[in-house]
Design a protein that fits this description.
The complex is a heterodimer of chains A (306) and B (261).
Chain A (H helix, E strand, L loop, with lengths): L3 H15 L3 E5 L4 H10 L4 E3 L4 H13 L3 E7 H5 L3 H10 L4 E6 L17 H5 L5 E4 L4 H11 L5 E5 L20 E4 L4 E5 L4 H13 L4 E5 L2 E3 L3 H11 L1 E9 L4 H8 L7 E7 L10 H8 L3 H12 L1
Parallel strand pairs in A: 1-2, 1-3, 3-4, 4-6, 5-6, 8-9, 8-11, 11-12
Antiparallel strand pairs in A: 5-10, 7-9
Helix pairs in contact in A: 1-2, 1-7, 3-5, 8-12
Chain B lengths: L6 H14 L4 H5 L2 H11 L14 E4 L5 H10 L5 H5 L30 H14 L6 E6 L6 H12 L5 E7 L12 H7 L3 E6 L8 H4 L9 E6 L22 H11 L2
Parallel strand pairs in B: 1-2, 2-3, 3-5, 4-5
Helix pairs in contact in B: 1-4, 1-10
Classes of the chains: A alpha/beta (306), B alpha/beta (261).
Chain lengths: 306, 261
């Protein structure tokens, strides 16, 4: 499967060739991958410099003139460092922008806290007119971007390094709509990001043990597909939420909020605790430490059904 | 005493702040002469069609000086006297900082320092991409020049050769109270900007704005305007309690008396 970052570059060319209003600003990240965009769309690509709040803020000026700006660098430098720019220069002033980041959660596993970002959903959800996507396969990124890039909202795309490798039918992918990947009656797994693959592997194992798992995949964090979750939890009354995000303010909180009308639901979560990730190692090493594994999921499900 | 220009606009500012019960009079007085001149002699606009695509763009990055911009917008018909009279009241369109979502003629909502100039740079870049000749003029304060994004913008705009962008620094000495930004002209020049320095209350000096070449692919322009905070009312001038103080009735009489000279 194509690398996610390559799909990002290819999607921008595909859209930029047909829409002269697409302008791309980057903070010295993905520069070489975007040189073909620069050649295909002359005058609409800028490697601005290492000054993220300024890059974000200047995109607001472009938006005022009717451009559809794309701002790109590593997630924490936009979402956390430039938060006031997102809040004031776009959300308050009702201007649109596409924020596309790499460095999802702890993807830069060896670089430590400075390059991690697992508060992004929590920070961006409360701001008006934001949309939050976590496309974990190339097709999702391509389709969701094309559906939303010109809708004049603040659209945040958290692009992970790893894909879940699941192949969707193109008409399955609709911004704002979750996808039921597998029917089941005992436990609902609600998952976002690359761990769809981990969840499906765990579900297959649990099925053999007689536990029927329903798997819901959420590529869109905001707006959250409440209906899909509510319908499933009416049936199973058990929710396991899996997200590479802080336990505060992610989709775990959304599930509790939307399922509040259903009595007797049990909840369990695999997310990032309230502490920083201080360890190093590979991405897979950190997944192991944090419980984003087939075994981690099996243990959580058994804890709910037993 | 030096002759005060724009004494009528200054009175309107004081009247508005008095009625509102809040406002930054001295910060508005240091820029009112420049803003009045820009709208009179430099900026192309159509107050009947604020979104006119051939208009020049003016952004007040030091948003707390908004009273000066409001009275000029009223002078040219963007807003009404009743808007000035209701500033900062429930349901008003005018508040303590400019708001583009409510006020015709306001290009950017500002107030958090170090944002408006960056927005202006984005507009200048967009105009350059579209090969459009509109000018972009932004006013920042010398206190605002403590903000890092001012100097990020200074680097980026010079690197992108945004000659259609002109930044006016209202050098009213605010930064000297806390974190001085010395040698402003030399600083901006060293960042690659075409630098001009004027007396920000002297009409003759304002002709520099008519001489500036706003062509693309030249250096961005900066005009260091040496100003006096509170200019025009002796007891409000320079730095002190009047920064965010509202005059009482007795003080109002004294202010009008000085402005009538």
């Amino acid at each position: 499967m194509k690398e996610m970052r390559q799909e990002f570059a290819d999607t921008l060319i595909e859209v930029g060739k047909v829409d002269n209003n697409l302008v791309v600003l980057v903070g010295d990240i993905s520069h070489f991958r975007l040189l073909p965009f620069s050649a295909a769309c002359p005058g609409r690509y800028y490697n601005v410099g290492i000054c993220e709040p300024t890059i974000v803020n200047m995109a607001a000026g472009l938006s005022m003139l009717g451009f559809y700006p794309v701002v790109h660098t590593i997630a924490p430098f936009i979402v956390e460092r430039s938060y006031e720019q997102i809040k004031l220069d776009f959300c308050y002033q009702k201007l649109g922008v596409n924020i596309i980041t790499v460095g999802s959660a702890f993807d830069y596993s060896t670089l430590g806290c400075t390059h991690h970002c697992y508060t992004d959903f929590a920070l961006l959800k409360p701001l008006p007119d934001t949309q939050i996507f976590f496309p974990a396969s190339p097709m999702e990124l391509n389709i969701l971007f094309k559906q939303t890039y010109n809708n004049k909202m603040v659209s945040y795309f958290r692009v992970p390094k790893c894909s879940h490798d699941y192949i969707f039918k193109p008409n399955q992918l609709v911004a704002g709509k979750g996808i039921k990947i597998k029917d089941g009656k005992d436990v609902t797994i609600i998952v976002t990001g690359p761990h769809l693959k981990t969840a499906l592997n765990a579900a297959e194992y649990l099925q053999k043990e007689g536990c029927d798992i329903e798997v819901l995949y959420m590529h869109t964090i905001k707006p959250f597909d409440a209906e899909l979750v509510i319908n499933s939890l009416h049936k199973t009354k058990k929710a396991l939420v899996i997200e590479e995000h802080s336990c505060y303010g992610g989709i775990g909180d959304e599930v509790i909020r939307v399922a509040g009308c259903i009595s007797g639901v049990k909840y369990s979560f695999i997310s990032i605790s309230g502490d920083f990730i201080r360890d190093y190692g590979s991405y897979e090493d950190l997944c192991e430490t944090l419980g984003f594994t087939v075994n981690g999921i099996i243990c959580k499900v058994k804890g709910m059904v037993n | 005493m030096n002759k005060i220009i724009n004494s009528e606009l200054r009175k309107k500012i004081v009247d508005m702040v008095y009625k509102a019960g809040e406002g930054h009079i001295p910060s508005a007085f240091s820029i009112i002469d420049i803003i009045a001149y820009l709208y009179d002699k430099v900026i192309k606009f159509d107050s009947k069609n604020p979104a006119w695509d051939k208009r020049d763009y003016f952004i007040l990055s030091k948003g707390h000086g908004c009273a000066a911009l409001y009275v000029v917008l009223e002078k040219y018909g963007y807003i009404k006297q009743r808007d000035l009279d209701s500033k900062s009241k429930k349901g008003a369109i005018l508040g303590g900082h400019p708001d583009r979502t409510k006020v015709p003629g306001i290009e950017a909502s500002t107030g958090s320092l170090g944002h408006g100039i960056v927005t202006a740079m984005g507009i200048a870049l967009g105009l350059k991409i579209r090969n459009k000749k509109n000018k972009v003029i932004v006013i920042v304060g010398d206190g605002e020049c403590n903000e890092g994004t001012i100097w990020e913008t200074a680097l980026v705009a010079a690197n992108l050769k945004l000659g259609n962008l002109c930044c006016v620094v209202d050098n009213n000495g605010s930064s000297d109270q806390v974190l001085p930004v010395s040698c402003l002209s030399k600083k901006w020049e060293s960042f690659g900007w075409e630098t001009h320095e004027i007396n920000g209350h002297n009409l003759k000096d304002f002709k520099v704005f008519n001489k500036i070449n706003f062509d693309f692919n030249s250096k961005p322009k900066v005009v260091i305007a040496n100003t006096t905070k509170g200019k025009g009312v002796s007891f409000m001038e320079t730095h002190g309690p009047w920064h965010y103080k509202v005059p009482n009735k007795d003080e109002l009489v004294l202010i009008y008396k000085e402005l009538d000279v």
